[in-house]
Amino acid sequence: MKLVLYGSLSSKLGKELNIEVNGEKNLKEILEELSAKEPNLKPDNPNILVFVNDVEVSLIGGLSYKPKNEDKVLVLPVAHGGQY
């Protein structure tokens, strides 16, 4: 699968990664492994959004979805502010 990281998430791992998955691991397992190098990729982080082939992951089974090699997975940090 092609994993694309946006914003600050790409600082340690790079913007794009190609990961051979063959439908064996789900997104939660993949993010847990990557979080060893980039802690903000932890699957329980409420400040990231995950899309598979331009569809928000909650619409296709959540992080239990098992990506295929041809999938494109985007991970975006959520930016939100405080006072105005």
Question: What's this, in brief?
Answer:
14% of the residues lie in helices and 24% in strands. The chain is an alpha+beta fold and 84 residues long.
Q: What can you see in these coordinates?
A:
This protein has a single domain (2-77), classed as Roll (Ubiquitin-like (UB roll)). It has two helices and five strands. It has helices spanning 10-13, 27-34; strands spanning 2-5, 16-18, 48-52, 55-56, 72-77. It has a five-stranded mixed β-sheet with strand order 2-1-5-3-4, with no helix packed on it. The longest helix is centred in the middle third of the chain and has 8 residues, at 27-34. The mean pLDDT is 93.
Which helices and strands appear, and what pairs or packs with what?
Blueprint: E1 2-5, H1 10-13, E2 16-18, H2 27-34, E3 48-52, E4 55-56, E5 72-77
Parallel strand pairs: 1-5
Antiparallel strand pairs: 1-2, 3-4, 3-5
CATH architecture: Roll
Low-confidence stretches: none
**Coarse structural class:** alpha+beta
Number of helices: 2
**Beta-strand percentage?**
15-25%
The CATH first-level class comes to Alpha Beta
Q: Largest sheet at a glance?
A: 5 strands, mixed
**Total number of domains:** 1
Measured between the Cα atoms of the first and last residue, the distance is: 40 Å
Helix content: 10-25%
Shape: globular
- Fill in the CATH topology: Ubiquitin-like (UB roll)
Radius of gyration: 13 Å
Average pLDDT reading: 93
Order of helices and strands: EHEHEEE
Total number of beta strands: 5
**CATH homologous superfamily name?**
Beta-grasp domain
Strand arrangement across the biggest beta sheet:
2-1-5-3-4
